From TrEMBL:
<comment type="subunit">
    <text>Homodimer.</text>
</comment>
<dbReference type="InterPro" id="IPR002649">
    <property type="entry name" value="tRNA_m1G_MeTrfase_TrmD"/>
</dbReference>
<dbReference type="Pfam" id="PF01746">
    <property type="entry name" value="tRNA_m1G_MT"/>
</dbReference>
<dbReference type="InterPro" id="IPR016009">
    <property type="entry name" value="tRNA_MeTrfase_TRMD/TRM10"/>
</dbReference>
<comment type="function">
    <text>Specifically methylates guanosine-37 in various tRNAs.</text>
</comment>
<feature type="region of interest" description="Disordered">
    <location>
        <begin position="84"/>
        <end position="105"/>
    </location>
</feature>
<keyword id="KW-0808">Transferase</keyword>
<keyword id="KW-0489">Methyltransferase</keyword>
<keyword id="KW-0819">tRNA processing</keyword>
<dbReference type="InterPro" id="IPR023148">
    <property type="entry name" value="tRNA_m1G_MeTrfase_C_sf"/>
</dbReference>
<feature type="binding site">
    <location>
        <begin position="152"/>
        <end position="157"/>
    </location>
    <ligand>
        <name>S-adenosyl-L-methionine</name>
    </ligand>
</feature>
<feature type="compositionally biased region" description="Low complexity">
    <location>
        <begin position="84"/>
        <end position="96"/>
    </location>
</feature>
<protein>
    <recommendedName>
        <fullName>tRNA (guanine-N(1)-)-methyltransferase</fullName>
        <ecNumber>2.1.1.228</ecNumber>
    </recommendedName>
</protein>
<dbReference type="GO" id="GO:0005829">
    <property type="term" value="C:cytosol"/>
</dbReference>
<keyword id="KW-0949">S-adenosyl-L-methionine</keyword>
<dbReference type="GO" id="GO:0002939">
    <property type="term" value="P:tRNA N1-guanine methylation"/>
</dbReference>
<dbReference type="InterPro" id="IPR029028">
    <property type="entry name" value="Alpha/beta_knot_MTases"/>
</dbReference>
Amino acid sequence: MSWHASVLTLFPEMFPGPLGQSLAGRALRDGRWSIDSLDIRSFATDRHRTVDDTPFGGGAGMVMRPDVLDAALAAALAAGPASDRAAPDGAAREPAAPAPRPAVYLTPRGRRLDQAMVRDFAAGPGLVLLCGRYEGIDERVIEARGLAEVSIGDYVLSGGEPAALVLLDACVRLLPGVMGAAESGIEESFSDGLLEYPHYTRPADWQGRAVPPVLLSGHHAEVARWRQAEAERITRERRPDLWAQHVANAGRDRAPSA
Ligand code: ADE
């Protein structure tokens, strides 16, 4: 069973969207991952296919109904890998059954997505992603379904769909066999907690700007030293938070283990 994403959305035609192209698109066609999108509206039960209502307590905006969202989540979990389904009463789970897929609600108030979280999601069986409208969803469905709340950054999108695409892209590129050697190198460099060093290609002189001579020297060790120093400089200058983390980790790695 390959890594499987189910997306619950009012705009199912947005998926796979850009993920049908390029690296993720090729991996999708190769069966390294799969995706289905479910239209939340199809789980509404009334004549008008209502998915939201006015907030209790008053105020602006609409809130998505917990009963409709719960029915959509139940359908997504039932359609996923067998392990997403609860084992029948009294029946022992197959010992080799993979863990059920985490159900994630994309929201600006969620935990900020980072590469460590992406690695965890990519290492699992897949994801069930709930895209709400910005005003929000009824709190009780978050509690009842144990939804993990994830944000892709401190800004507000008009809906969770672009955030779901971002999260999926970040996961899919880490799946086995998706990245070639070139892209894997970039992942390795990020995994040491540093930003990328600068890259150059031909022409060696462009508009009076020369490529740093060390890169033309043919000295592999010196090139590696220069790249490391540049990655450290750029991280220190642009992201003091990442730099502090990197320094703390390096200290820990050097600490005696006994
Ligand atoms: N929905 C709206 N804004 C979002 C954000 N920043 N991250 C995740 N989901 C969102």
